[in-house]
TrEMBL record:
Pfam families, per the entry: adh_short
NAD recorded as keyword: no
The organism's taxonomic lineage, starting at the top: Eukaryota, Metazoa, Spiralia, Lophotrochozoa, Mollusca
Protein name, as recorded: Uncharacterized protein
Keyword set includes Ligase: no
UniProt source species: Littorina saxatilis
Alphabetized GO MF terms: oxidoreductase activity
SUPFAM superfamilies: NAD(P)-binding Rossmann-fold domains (SSF51735)
Membrane spanning stretches: 23-46
UniProt similarity note: Belongs to the short-chain dehydrogenases/reductases (SDR) family.
């Protein structure tokens, strides 16, 4: 055998093995995401929605809802406004926010809702948003980190991070840290200011390697938008637990919890593959939860008097539920917290 053939053949075999491995992993991530989604949907259909009554008035309170103009976020904004809160809808498009505000005011005449521009794909936009909010001198009692993207094709943000990681997790972590001091000073007498992070049941199937968390993702078959979404939702949970521990150690008057809102009929599914989008549309209409009901389960965590001292918990259907074994590993929580701070260019204490 010629020398050239001796070196080219093993290289060809090893790169073929790599391609096959990546394709198998890709398919596995797709299957895992749909299986956990189907199981969660069946459980949701079998379980009764928890009745939520008598949430207290939120007048004289201020809330920020990211992605508050559509989907679940719209109903969170609307329900908080109808409880009397001043609501800041933090989203990308003014026209969309204006429509949402008009709809909210139609149903709730005294609603106090305003728009402030926020693009979570840009740390600069997050910093500008926080500076603008802080310049109003309004207090901040509730921060709902709701906005999210799912199954977006590969893409990097202007800050150089994979999109799911930045939009769903990193930018919300940055926003929380920029507003924490304001929340601390706004906490009501004998109570707490509350951060609610919207995670998802799909965190259960995330494959997560903290070593590669901060690395640039390759744009090839080894990139899985299915795992990128699930991993971002796991990162949110891990960060929530680590942050809660720190807040408690500091004797802070801020609490932080995470929520799975349900399997909900919203625009989040617009990136599902065309081959199943028709079936998905039918399933959504027939079986998925309404965004109104999902919004209520988030607003419950943000306002219920029963949860005044609750922090570091994960909720679904207005009940504390267990999260995945991986999410409960303190070492992984600390690792993700530290890496998140490094990625945001902050100190981690
Ligand atoms: N629907 C479900 O079944 C389900 C299940 C579990 C968890 N969740 C979670 O629930 C949350 C709300 O989702 P949804 O179902 O209401 O979906 P949705 O209708 O697609 O709403 C997502 C929101 O996020 C906003 N958003 C996306 N990219 C953004 C960016 N770069 N900067 C600022 N805002 C951005 C969107 O605003 P634009 O209009 O500007 O794009 C929109 O308001 C997400 O975190 C999602 O992961 C949903």
């Amino acid at each position: 055998m010629a020398v050239e053939e001796q070196t080219i053949l093993p290289q060809f075999v090893s790169s073929s093995v790599q391609v096959v491995r990546n394709i198998v992993l890709y398919v596995l991530y797709v299957i895992k995401l749909y299986v956990i989604g189907a199981i969660a949907l069946i459980c949701q259909l079998l379980e009764k929605s928890a009745p939520v009554r008598g949430l207290p008035s939120q007048s004289s309170r201020t809330a920020i809802v990211t992605g508050g103009a559509c989907g679940i976020g719209f109903h969170i904004s609307k329900q908080l406004a109808s409880l009397g809160a001043t609501v800041v809808i933090a989203c990308r498009h003014k026209a969309e926010a204006d429509d949402a505000i008009a709809k909210i005011k139609e149903d709730c005449h005294n609603a106090n809702v305003v728009f402030m521009q926020l693009d979570l794909a840009s740390f600069k936009s997050v910093r500008d948003f926080a500076a603008k909010f802080l310049s109003t001198k309004w207090p901040l009692h509730i921060l709902i980190n709701n906005a999210g993207i799912m199954l977006a094709p590969f893409g990097e943000t202007e800050d150089g991070f994979e999109r799911h990681v930045q939009v769903n997790h990193l930018s919300h972590a940055l926003l929380t840290s920029l507003l924490k001091k304001k929340m601390e000073s706004s906490a009501p007498e004998g109570g707490a200011a509350r951060v609610v992070n919207v995670s998802s049941v799909v965190h259960h199937v995330a494959s997560f390697d903290p070593k590669t968390f901060e690395e640039k993702q390759p744009h090839d078959w080894s990139y899985s938008p299915h795992n990128a979404y699930a991993a971002s939702k796991l990162a949110i949970l891990l960060y929530t637990y680590a942050l809660s521990r720190r807040l408690a150690e500091d004797g802070s008057k801020v609490t932080v919890n995470a929520v799975h809102p349900g399997i909900v009929n919203t625009g989040l599914y617009h990136n599902v593959h065309w081959s199943i989008s028709c079936l998905m549309d039918i399933l959504k209409e027939l079986f998925f939860m309404s965004p109104e009901q999902a919004g209520l389960s988030v607003v419950y965590v943000a306002t219920s008097p029963d949860l005044e001292e609750t922090s570091g918990c994960y909720f679904s259907n207005c009940q504390k539920v267990g999260s995945s074994t991986l999410s409960k590993l303190p070492s992984l929580q600390e690792d993700v917290y530290t890496k998140t701070c490094q990625m945001l260019g902050k100190k981690s204490n």
